[in-house]
Amino acid sequence: MSTENDILINGRKVGTDHPPFIIAEMSGNHNQSLDRAMELVEAAAKSGVHALKLQTASPDGLTLDIDSPEFLIDDPASPWHGRNLYQLYKEAVTPWEWHKPIFDRCNELGLTVFSSPFELSAIDLLEELNAPCYKIASFELVDLPLIRKAAATGKPLIMSTGMASVSDIQDAVQAAKGEGNDNIILLKCTSSYPATAADANVATIPHLREMFGLQVGLSDHTLGIGVPCAAAALGATVIEKHFTLRREDGGVDSTFSLEPQEFAALVEESERAWASVGKVVYGGAVVEQKSLKFRRSLYIAEAVKKGEVLTEQNLRIVRPGYGLAPKHIDVLLGRKVNQDLQAGIAMKWRYIG
Asked: What's the pLDDT at 89?
């Protein structure tokens, strides 16, 4: 298996020797309702995910309150097309006073909870709440002071790499390691909302792992669970997707979020994908041995007397597989048998004169 060490997150081992660590990202899908946020907590726990993640940010910590073209989202394909950044973030952020009740309820349910800090003071709040790890979002991967402060806590650091060049990733990894923190997991991410499967490029996962010698997972914005299951088969140790109660309820991230039953399927199917990788095996795995009898082999099909010649009529390739391999038929045809053989006898070399 892998040479990377396991990383412990809230008592759970994360690594290639374990099923993927599944994170449900609440993001702004609480729709500015604490009651809905708590419903999301309950639904996440019931779905079987391993962790719930928040975003700890404030509009002023993210951007400037300026209404000029540079502060508008101008991508027609974006679900937030035409929105002002400051106003969008006012709608999307999770109020800081909600964090404690959310953390408390997750802890009661045995659900790991942590967050993505988007400003230095957010780490102070999350430290007060004893967050077990930190997530650095793709857009913040270039914020090295933020990475350094999160890494300095000594807790595991999960960093998304959407849009990042190899140099960007190297800078972020070095910033974390410079604080003495080697517990780093990188996430392959496509920063498009939603992203298509063709944009996912999950082949990057093993390449990233080899390049940096770190665990690599997936932060996914595609629809469905096919892409994360493919990532699990490629060695992704962490899978993060956005989570909502019902897409039809709307919300800033609802269009590319999974509903509870879909997350339950993701937990189950990603573990199956991980388990299916196994190791390189030829000649039949142990579990296949009992099926060998159903392979074809050479059998006496019609009774032959001692001294008679084997022909296509009295020697056939049939099931079960206890006789000589079919590849020997050309050698055996025309040879004489050295004893009487009844129909149904598995052909052996000792029957040839």
From this structure: 86
Q: What angle do CA 285, 286, 288 make, to 5 degrees?
A: 70
Ordered structural domains, the chain, with CATH: 7-58+93-277 (3.20.20.70), 286-351 (3.90.1210.10)
Rounded distance between C-alpha atoms, residue 3 and residue 343, angstroms: 56
**What three-state secondary structure class fits 245?**
coil
3-class secondary-structure state, position 176: helix
Where would I find the H helices in the chain?
A: 34-47, 59-62, 85-92, 99-109, 120-128, 144-151, 166-177, 197-200, 204-212, 226-233, 260-277, 329-332
Joined tokens for residue 18: 């374990």
Instruction: Kindly report the three-state secondary structure assignment for every residue of 206-225.
Output: HHHHHHHCCEEEEEECCCCC
Rounded Cα distance, 88 and 75, in Å: 15
**Predicted model pTM:** 0.86
> Which residues lie below 8 Å from residue 251, measured CB to CB, with a gap of 6+?
28, 29, 30, 31, 244, 257
Q: What's the rounded Cα separation, in Å, for the pair 212 and 232?
A: 19
Q: Residue 344, class by beta-carbon neighbours within 10 Å (0-12 exposed, 13-18 middle, 19+ buried)?
A: exposed
pLDDT category at 3 given cuts 50, 70, 90 is very low
At 242 the three-state DSSP class reads strand
